[in-house]
Amino acid sequence: MVEDVVSVETPGNRDDVLRILKRTGISGVPVTKNGELVGIITRKDLLRKSDETQLSLLMTSDPVTIGPDESIVEAARVMSRNNFRRLPVVEDGRLVGLISIADLISAIAQMKFSEEIKNGYTKPTFALWEETPLPLVGRIMEISGFDAIPILNKESTLTGIISERDLIRHASIEDSVEVSDLSNGTDDDEWTWESIRDMHTISFGISKVQLPEKLVKEAMIKDVVAVPQNAEVSECALKMKRSRVDQLPVINGDKKMVSMLFDRELIKVLIKDIAP
């Protein structure tokens, strides 16, 4: 586990969380209060609740945790079962560390698993055109549940990968003022005198996490690391670790992309022969 955990304290500021995710590239941060874990905030929370500023409303309260003496097999089992990317490590109610999928991938890279990834680790996927606007990419990710999508040019050639990490890297905070009209009566009411009509308007500030109107080709990762279908599990884990990526496109003998290998699928090698 990582012992020096980047976290935020509640009550706190959403903008601080965005800055942390941008600076570090991590996918989420624990939320503490007086040293005790009370929640966790992820990239998905910021993108899906773009107009929410309060940490208590953004975070997932009472997150699932694990103890420091548990095995990495148990950590993999909990992450796979709940589709988590990280687990806070708690001892006596206090946050003492964090174990992530990336940490498990590092362990798998050293464990010399020779099984080929085509044996149940790859997943079908879809791709986006490189001219797709970033706000639309964010919405497609939210609808599809994919946190990384391959990008193709008009010749159907793989030119890049876009992930939630890239979206957060390009996101900004946009402040605006909206006006709500709470007037009594309508313009169609001929018996309402304008001079005595009750007019009420309320102005209120809106602060949103905003994606710029850039094309996805301007934000995607272009130096794509791909693997063949017969690549071995630990070999792929090592490529993920060295390239600091969460996914790898899988190509066939004609160098055409046929599927994706996600780190969350790769960690299942640790629990493959163990009952849930």
Automatic annotation (TrEMBL):
Sequence ranges assigned to domain CBS in this UniProt record: 1-57, 59-115, 121-177, 220-276
Domain of life: Archaea
GO BP annotations, alphabetical order: methionine biosynthetic process
Swiss-Prot/TrEMBL keywords: Amino-acid biosynthesis, CBS domain, Methionine biosynthesis
Organism: Methanochimaera problematica
Name assigned to this protein: CBS domain-containing protein
Keyword Amino-acid biosynthesis: yes
Pfam families: CBS
PANTHER family (alphabetical): CBS DOMAIN-CONTAINING PROTEIN CBSX3, MITOCHONDRIAL, OS02G0818000 PROTEIN
